[in-house]
Amino acid sequence: MSGALRVGIVSQARMTSTRLPGKVLLRAGADSLLGWHLRRLRQTGLPVFLATTTNAADDVLAAFGAAHGLPVTRGDEHDVLGRFLLCARQHDLEAVVRVTSDCPLIAAELITEGVARYRAAADPRLYLSNVLQRTYPRGFDFEVFSRELLEEAARRATLPAEREHVTPYINQNRSGTVRLAHLTRATDASRYRLTVDTPEDFTLARALLADYNAGRLDCEEIIALLAAHPKLVALNAEVEQKKI
């Protein structure tokens, strides 16, 4: 692995979310949730790709990609792992940053730091993330891993949950040869929830983006904003994360 390693961000999206259908194209202030997500990812300077399904319901996401210069890979709705591999192959990626499109306030600087650490390690068996040891708000999640690990997972992962959630085969170290690394924050801020999976989540995201200009704030500024406004945090404090 070299300094010229081709790393791309792949974001997964679909319109048929069970708890909030069509959520990624809901408007929050000046843009859609997916629009804000894309803006923030592009701050990394890395190429960004969208992985969606072949379902007719997701034609609108392919159209979004075409309108925003965002390359789109389409595949099976339930085999998200297969979609990621197809995208990596189509664009000759040597390493992938996995994110999900329901994170409109995702932090570019965390991804940049994570990718820098990943490149410096020069280890194709490395998996680096901020999700296994969670100290950042849910909604800043990212994972970095090699095409080699992705190919291996696609060959060997057989459980439906492993195919749907992309990385369990890798980050559970099913092969026994993966090295895990963690990007953590000195003070735990994992109690905050910035992902959008329910109407309550959307109410918070819309308030942050439309009323508090959060789309222009970095990770630490957003955490400080939440700490200063407990009434905002209360908007989705009762939401339970879906279990894998």
UniProtKB/TrEMBL annotation:
It comes from the Bacteria. InterPro entries: Cytidylyl_trans, Nucleotide-diphossugar_trans. SUPFAM superfamilies: Nucleotide-diphospho-sugar transferases (SSF53448). Pfam families: CTP_transf_3. GO terms for molecular function: nucleotidyltransferase activity. Keywords: Nucleotidyltransferase, Transferase. GO terms for cellular component: cytosol. PANTHER family: 3-DEOXY-MANNO-OCTULOSONATE CYTIDYLYLTRANSFERASE (PTHR42866), SPORE COAT POLYSACCHARIDE BIOSYNTHESIS PROTEIN SPSF (PTHR42866:SF1). This is Acylneuraminate cytidylyltransferase. It comes from Hymenobacter nivis.
